[in-house]
Amino acid sequence: MRVKKFIPLFAFVLLTGLLFRGLSIDPTALPAARLGQPFPPFAQPELLSGDEISDAALTSKPALVNVWATWCYSCRVEHPYLLSLAEQGIPIYGLNYKDDSAKARDWLEQLGDPYRLNIVDVEGSVGLDLGVYGAPETYVLDADGYIVHRHVGVLDEGVFTRDFSRWFPVAATSESMPAAGGRL
Amino acid sequence: MIPELGHVALIIAFVLAMGLAVVPLWGTMRHDIAAMNMAPSLALGVTVFVGMAFALLATSFLQDDFSVAVVAANSNSLLPPIFKFSALWGNHEGSLLLWVLILSGWMTAVAYFSRGLPLEMVARVLSVMGMIAVGFLAFSLLTSNPFERLLPNTPLDGNDLNPLLQDPGLIIHPPLLYMGYVGLSVPFAFAIAALLGGRLDASWARWSRPWTNVAWGFLSLGIMLGSWWAYYELGWGGWWFWDPVENASFMPWLMGTALVHSLAATEKRGVFRSWTVLLAIFAFSLSLLGTFLVRSGVLTSVHAFASDPERGLFILIFLALVVGGSLLLYALRAPSVASRVSYTGVSRESLLMVNNLVFTVATIVVLLGTLFPLVMDAFSLGKYSVGPPYFNAVFVPLMALVMPFMTAGPLSRWREDSAKRWLHELLMPGVGVLVVALVLASLGRDGFNIWIALAVLLAGWVALGVIKDLWRRIASAPDGELKWRRLTPSFMGMTLAHLGFAAVVLGAVVVTQGNQERDLRMAVGDVEELGGYRFELLRLGQQAGPNYLAEQAVFEVTRDGQIIAGLVPEKRRYFASGQIMTEAAIDASLWRDLYIALGEPIGEDAWAVRLQYKPMVRWLWLGSLMIGLGALVTALDRRYRSQAVRKPVPTSGVAGLAG
Amino acid sequence: MRRVEKVLILSALWCLLSVSLGARAVIETYAFSSQDLEARYHLLSQELRCPKCQNQNIADSNAPIARDLRVVLFEQLEAGATDDEILAFMVARYGEFVRYRPGMDRQTLLLWAAPGLLLVFGAAGLISHFRQRRVRAPGVLTDVEQDQIEQLLREPRA
């Protein structure tokens, strides 16, 4: 009889534990639905050459796939960092998402081209198959070509060191590591 | 200077609240009458100083003092004065101050109206409320100081109040809602006081019952206003979204519904005593939980305040102390002896238990649905969303389940009744309602609609039971004379609330089933038909408001050649924030609303327009209004007022049974 | 530190773009080939959650991604896809998260079974409560009367 009276307290303790755990979870952080799957098949033009390419063209692995567009302000912010990653030899493929191809070519000409290839996705259909929310987003393909990570928003050194470096150990420079762990 | 004074007032209020939390309670342990007698004055003191802080913050808002951070973030010099005032609670810090102000208001009211109660009881109740005030004042002072200054970088003008909140509905919605939320602290405090004192009897239930009804009534009205506001202001004609923030206010309401009914049984018959105490604790715990959910950022919602994990942690710790402490007290002190009162499975007690079962299950289900995504996330089981389709699928059957019992409830007798008598009382009305339901449901546009049939059946069933009960009360005298004096406020309130519930159910089902909606491209001169009405777009224009510029479309609505209404939906651009807002135009009436909202312009002279025909949507709010007012009316009952003058304990049971 | 701040501001901006427009009604004029398709469009667009919004369905959200998904929904409906196919398509790309009505599987079993189980257990509890009660002889004191007696015994009239 007595024990029964402790049930509400017990349930409440469980609830409090859950809520406490909830404080350190970011409800808006969503893992990509395509994690653990190969890059979705596509057949689209390449931005600079105009040749039709398919998912077979993503040959160097592990690699980054960067979703970008000229209308995306944050893409301009992360662009220099992408260039420096490319300089370190990390293969980056671009997905030019719902963009004007002429503007995109100008952008690469002016700001430099970190990409090995650029998939033209005017309709956003490759983006849809990939589960893209918007630009910028950056995906990691592992050595077997499987999608293993997705980052939404600006990619910078802090994010790279924290989340990306295990697939690209060479590039993990140890200089100036910002306080990671906060919600960015 | 004014903000600093406000800050000092808040600190003084905090110190007084500390005194209130400790001194009278200490007095009850030491039987120190002087210490216990301090409780009302301390409660009043807290109210005065919180009121001062509130008034000073309001002054800062009205004087456009943008050196105060919350004013700069939530107001603007162009804002109309009434919205400058309501902007005070359109943000986390200010609304918290409103929370505390209302809490202290309830404390003072309890102190004033409970002068006839035993001193120990009053001292305990006020001390418990004082503890809650301490927690919230500390929360305000330590993590969310509303008087924080932006010095020396004072902005020239403020960021403006979110245009969504620049609305008359939002001036009164939060205060009413908080009246309900916070008002549940009164039955909570009474429950804790009773546990502390070791006396859980019918008189305890009678003291706490009017407070519970009033708080629950305010909560009903607050939720109603929120739903009404969402309907006309969000611009798409929905009235309930099962958003976590809505659920945060709905869960205490559901639990409160169970509490209100359980208290009735406890007061009149002395049964379910532990259960009622537990419900009182749960109802207020859920309102604290709601505060946590809305302000911690644990769940995503369109309406949530800017979230901050530090604040979340503070409320969580407070929540753990208050609720954990109460439940521990309950576990240790609640009477473990089963109730000795006799009643059978066919009695009013058993029907009230069905109410309690259904509303408790409904509360748990809403809680589960709200927290499910968090649970899955916490155990890394994936990201889930639980939304309206789930809640409707589980909630609607629960409500349908409780309604048949609702009819029998008021007609039934305490202790022992017979199913045969129920059948005798309700068979004819039942058959009548069934016929009406079948006929009404076949009159619709698309032929027979089973859902409308069920809704009319259940709502009509409840309404008939209520009306029959009403008639039986006033007409049962042998001389045939109508006995209006038998209609006590508590009976009238119950009747009103039950009818209101039936109206809400009917409105909800009819508007969901009969809603007609078309998204169209309309240019000047275009005519469209919907629900038997003819909508003509007469012209487009512009209109400047105090702090916005509106694009307008002028519509004329006719039916059979007769002009019904001129409707002018707007698309507003607010200067300060640049935000764009849809102002829907609505022609409201008891049986249908016509609802026009503007989308985006298409080309030069055309707009995307949404026309809606919403049958009986007003019944939702009319019914909720009846529920809320009904609850408030019950508190006027003489037997609650007389408690102040007579010594309540020895005679309570008899009075309760007679009433 | 500088850089972190900048990123914070940028991500805030990024979010604002998709969120701040929330108060605008979404009104689009698709030309459906049948009323049945239009009705299904309304139902499905309310059951699908905008992946990058503060708890809004794709019908009510102005975010670009919600607009894209509405187009996809419209096209798939017109192409003759069933509701299940459309939901499967969306879940494959955006995860279970996009469904406001979680699918019934092992993980969500508790969610879907809870209402029924609670009701059944509760009702069973009530029935057993009344069974016990029936055994009790009538005519014993009510709690109220018992309290009064205790009260009288405890504190003689002052």
CATH C-level class of the largest domain in chain C is: Mainly Alpha
Helix content of chain B: 55-70%
Elements of chain C, N to C (H/E): HHHHHH
Domains of chain C (count):
2
CATH superfamily of the largest domain in chain C: Cytochrome C biogenesis protein
Class from helix and strand fractions of chain B: alpha+beta
Per DSSP E runs of 2 or more residues, the count of β-strands of chain B stands at 10
The total of beta strands of chain C comes to 0
Q: Largest interface, per-chain counts?
A: B-C, 79 and 60 residues
Helix content of chain C: 55-70%
Proportion of residues in extended strands of chain C: under 5%
**CATH fold name of the largest domain in chain C:** Helicase, Ruva Protein, domain 3
What does the average pLDDT of chain B come to?
Answer: 88
Question: Over the alpha carbons, how many angstroms does the gyration radius of chain C reach?
Answer: 29 Å
Q: What's the quaternary structure here? A: heterotrimer
Mean pLDDT of chain C: 76
Tell me the major beta sheet of chain C.
none
**Helical region count of chain C?**
6
Tell me the major beta sheet of chain B.
6 strands, antiparallel
